[in-house]
Amino acid sequence: xPEQTESENPxxxxxxxxxxxxxxxxxxxxxxVTAPETVGSVVGHLVEGEHVLTLLFASDLGxxxxxxxxxxxxxxxxxxxxxxxxxxxxxxxxALLAPxxxxxxxRLADYRAAQDAxxxxxxxxxxxxxxxxxxxxxxxxxxxxxxxxxxxxxxxxxxxxxxxxxxxxxxxxxxxxxxxxxxxxxxxxxxxxxEGETDEGETGEGETGDDDSVDGESGGDETDxxxxxxxxxxxxxx
Length: 238
Hints:
238 residues, alpha+beta, four-stranded antiparallel sheet, 4 strands, 15% strand
């Protein structure tokens, strides 16, 4: 005979209608642990088993977005009344949660492993750091040499500019002096006068000379006359 197998059909648990309708009972249980304004409306339920049900309420509690109040109800049989098993605040799918707790022994082991890996990495990088340090020193020397060359070029440019300025100053001063060298200022003044003005100047000088001669002659006559008078007086007295 062929072997017969039993079909495995899991039993489907249906939500208890009496527990689903026990919203007021569940709300009163929540008001014993939280304020009325923190409890919202019913947002869903979870079937925990036969005659066991959890009602979910929206949470209006500040600082807990995405969390829900839950009240688990139960009854012994179809004829029994609903009773409250527990109440709690449970996170929803969008709730912000802390990371999973890790025992201290595991965290300490991870820390030591990280320290050992870091130490090994430092030892292996010492050689590379030495080579990089040598390259950096060469680069610094090259930079210093370039800076010195640039400074020398700047100094040469400044000296050239100073020499140009000095030459320009010398040229200006010499040019001004050369323009007046060998020039008779009196001749320039006389050359600018008319012939008539020059003759008048000469005539004036001649007249002045005549006046001086006349004055000289007059003075001589008066002196002679005075001398003659003095001699006459001397003779009379004798």
